[in-house]
Amino acid sequence: MTVAASSPPTQAGPDRPRVSASLQGVAYGDRFFKILLTIAALLIPILLAFLLWELWAGSRLAMSKFGFDFIRTSIWDPVAEKFGAFPLIFGTLLSSFLALLIAVPLSLGVAVYLTEFAPKFLRQPVAFVIGLLAAIPSVVYGLWGIFVLIPMLRKTVFPALRAVLGFLPFFHGPIYGPSMLSASVILAIMVMPYVMSVSREVLLAVPNSQREAALGLGATRWEAVITAVVPYARSGIVGAIILGLGRALGETMAVTMLIGNRHEISASLFAPGYTMAAVIANEFSEAATDMHFSALTYVALVLFVLTVLVNAGARLLIWRVARGSAVGSKAL
Amino acid sequence: MNRRVLRRVASNVMVGLMIVAVILAVLPLLLILLNLVAKGASSLSWDFFTKMPAPAGESGGGVANAIVGTLIIVGAASLIGIPVGVGAGIYCAEYPGSRLTWLTRFVADVLNGTPSIVVGVFAWTWIVAHQKHFSALAGSVALAMLMIPMVMRTTEEMIKLVPNSLREAALALGYPRWRTSLAVVVRTTMPGIVTGTLLAVARIAGETAPLLFTALGSQYLSFRLNQPMAALPLTVFTYATGPYEEWHRYAWAAALVLIFVVLVLGVGARLAIGRSQLSSG
Question: What is the Cα–Cα distance from A290 to A152, expressed in whole angstroms?
């Protein structure tokens, strides 16, 4: 359209009708092109709205019967059609929290090392290799977790934890293989590449003058990082962590395979638990009653709302550091 | 003087801890790859790729149906997801001021963070619940939904790298806008878009959760999109959580095949992106 409008007015004379017809063709072409693109772009919000509506419609049955008690009560009995999702929500939050507890120090250490200390030739390859961790399918993590990680943890780490910290209720009681702690460890491994790569990008965006000023005042390199670089990137790093939290909350397969799948809240981290994603994965294809389906869809809705809130918060924080550029979305 | 030494020591200790963190971070990848090869490679054989699964408890057989199923499901998902993703990406890059661009970008970010199992539930309530039976198509739709935001964002970012002067040159030569977009802008960024798309394909090829109650999995070879279909990730899941020793070996082998495909797609795409960015910068 702009072309048609800005063409020089030289088409006077006998040629005129033909040329303007071809220009009109151009205008139609442009319009058609724009319509096609608009449809594609519109489809995405429509899909999301549709998704929300389907989840809401699907969970209406459970919503009207249980209301808010759904997220407060703990009995999950498909036979008696009584559903309370509190242990699931608790398990989701606890496993994600533990995963972050393990993953955050590690990934921040790696990110800081790669941006500030590592020799040049190491930076790209190490980031690349850790990025590959993000490419491994969740079900492969689950497989590895069942047959390698759990036996390993059970033989070495768990007994050691119980011996040293056994006086705490968290590390008390019998050691099961599939447990809250095993699931958290695998989650930590899975979340780490995300936190690492986003916080690395945020650290790379810190201007060099920040470092130079600190070094110029006589700080050691570590002091420069901790006093001048990290504080500057603080909100971006927090954003990276929350983004990792969003990943951990919705992670399904590996957790389903490692957490033990028991609708109970236990103080001991060695005991099995359950998460929202895992219960959907396990029970959805076997649900027999409408109420059971509805309750599972309700769980999906709660999970969806939770992750949207978490991700929105993360993005706001990341945008504050790297305004406009899609730092976060590239890493996802 | 003493304090200075102390500060230097503290600095070195922290760097040492960070190196430990790097080793701990890289270790799982090495372990996983080593274990996959050690436990999976021995079960790989010609039969593994060409035969149907043996009945439970019996030995022999293969996962041919799952390999074919994954190809079909991922192929159908790509057919749905790539045009929408690329189209939306071009829209957002070419009409940056529009309100729809803002909305689409925002929603794509939301979708990107949506757990894949939730998308699976959506595909179930939308398609499976109405059809009253499980179908591979529902699985493809779920995978396409996971794919669209990824493809869209890479397309948009790649197109944004195109200098405006290139657009202006094409327009000045009398190209209409649509031809400028397609023949000049998109064509310049084609390698980037292709690699971004490959990355997205690699990501969804390993997805299991959205297929659990859409494609469901199947013991048989099936080419029909409206029927249940086997898929490699589903095979890994069922075999890994099953009771038989034999199944576990097959789970490792299937996982090895899966990760080989995913890594080849992923590494190839990443290397290509690195190269195209170098050449354009």
Answer: 41
